[in-house]
Amino acid sequence: MRTLVLNAGYEPLAVVSFKRALVLVMNEKATVLECVEGEPVWAARAVFERPAVIVLTRYVRVPGARRVPATRRGVLRRDAFRCGYCGGAASTIDHVMPRSRGGRDTWENLVACCLRCNNVKSDRTPQEMGWELRFALGAPRGGAWTVRGTERADPRWEPYLALAA
């Protein structure tokens, strides 16, 4: 069981275990917004509902320059697991400007790619192949990208993650 933690301004901060969330609620550092029905937690003196979404009682300042690192999983997720060249199902990533020619591991140079297109493109640029990218490349936007663990989101989290997008 995992719990979505929202800042006092209702922006997503983190995904924590339900035990950690329950400790925050019991110490009055957070309040429960959504809970899992039918699965109570039995304590020595009380019964608590399992929290699915909690909000902190005090605002926590988040560093402004929170960059999302470019990872294989992140690139595939950003491109919705679709090949940037043919639109098919992507299972790998490709450097638009090949690494052998100085291409870097940045959001602007990485694209989701199917194995076929990746092998055909090889060590060339899309311009040399006469190919065009199907979408613009760049770092992902939205609060859901800065919170780890939201790729397997609970359906109860959707309204709160949609606010951050």
Write the layout of secondary structure elements.
Blueprint: E1 2-6, E2 12-17, H1 18-26, E3 30-42, E4 47-56, H2 72-78, E5 92-95, E6 110-113, H3 115-121, H4 126-129, H5 143-146, H6 158-164
Parallel strand pairs: 1-4
Antiparallel strand pairs: 1-2, 3-4, 5-6
Task: Write a concise synopsis of the structure shown.
One of its GO terms (molecular function) is zinc ion binding. The protein is α+β, with helices and mostly antiparallel strands. Helix content is 23%, strand content 25%.
Strand content: 25-35%
* SSE succession: EEHEEHEEHHHH
The averaged pLDDT comes out at 86
Instruction: State Rg.
Output: 21 Å
Strand arrangement in the largest pleated sheet: 2-1-4-3
Q: Please count the helical segments.
A: 6
- Quick one: overall form? elongated
Binned, the helix content reads 10-25%
What's the total count of β strands? 6
How many structural units, i.e. domains?
A: 2
**Separation, N- and C-terminal Cα atoms:** 24 Å
How would you classify the helix and strand content by structural class? alpha+beta
Q: In oligomeric terms, what are we looking at?
A: single chain
The description of the largest β-sheet is: 4 strands, mixed
Keywords: Endonuclease, Hydrolase, Nuclease
GO molecular function: endonuclease activity; nucleic acid binding; zinc ion binding
Protein name: HNH endonuclease
Pfam families: HNH
Would you give an account of this structure?
The protein is an alpha+beta fold. The chain has two domains: 2-64, no CATH class; 72-129, Orthogonal Bundle (DNA Binding (I), subunit A). Helix content is 23%, strand content 25%. The protein has six helices and six strands; from the N terminus they run ββαββαββαααα. The protein has helices at residues 18-26, 72-78, 115-121, 126-129, 143-146, 158-164, and strands spanning 2-6, 12-17, 30-42, 47-56, 92-95, 110-113. Strands 2-1-4-3 form a four-stranded mixed beta sheet. It has a two-stranded antiparallel ribbon with strand order 5-6. It is elongated, with a radius of gyration of 21 Å. The mean pLDDT is 86.
